[in-house]
Amino acid sequence: MSARQSVSTEDLDAVESQLGRRPRGVLEIAYRSPDGRPGVVTTAPRLDDGTPFPTLYYLTDPRLTAEASRQESAGIMRTMTTRLTTDAELAANYRDAHERFLAKRNAIEDLGTDFSGGGMPERVKCLHVLMAYALAEGPGVVRLGDESVALAAENGLRGAAIPQDWPTPEELGIPDDGGTDA
């Protein structure tokens, strides 16, 4: 498990402080915010005790987790899921993102399942997972995750928890209502 040893004690302590518990299965810091804090960790597909843990990217920064929760409460997941049924290009990107997620996770350890996370590839179930995936991989891989991050950036997190140059909602073509049902 040498990959786990490459994560500094300081980073693990910071993630522990963010989560309020010692993190499990951390392989690396997959995303660090512009202000230097760990924001997303890559986790092992199987924890040290053998428990499967299919969530490859785990959102740790409390600013980002709070924003993902706020967006979920606002109904954005429902709207995104509806858009998957009406926008063939968006649905294709989501399927491709699902396959990429599985390939990356399986390259670490194949769990023998086609479950990825966030509801992929049919629905949107967790913006925490999609936001973590988008931040870890960068814009262009998982469009719905990119959109969630863009909305978070517009909600005061640009330049602090989210890169200054993250695409704006307008650049991503997010519906004028911000993707909510309201």
**Rough outline:** globular
**What can be said about the biggest beta sheet?**
3 strands, antiparallel
Label the structural class: mainly alpha
Tally the helices.
8
* Distance N to C terminus: 47 Å
Global Rg: 16 Å
- The H/E string reads HHEEEHHHHHH
The overall number of domains is 2
- DSSP summary, beta strand count: 3
Estimate the mean pLDDT confidence: 92
The portion of residues forming beta strands comes to 5-15%
Helical fraction equals 40-55%
Low-pLDDT residue intervals, each spanning 5 or more residues: 1-5
- Which strand order spans the largest sheet, edge to edge or round the barrel? 1-2-3
Structural description of this entry:
It is a single chain. It is built from 8 helices and 3 strands. The chain is mainly α and 182 residues long. It has 2 domains: 2-61, no CATH class; 65-172, no CATH class. Strands 1-2-3 form a 3-stranded antiparallel beta sheet, sandwiched between helices. Helix 6 packs across helix 7 (143-157). The longest helix is centred in the middle third of the chain and has 21 residues, at 88-108. The chain is globular and about 45 Å long.
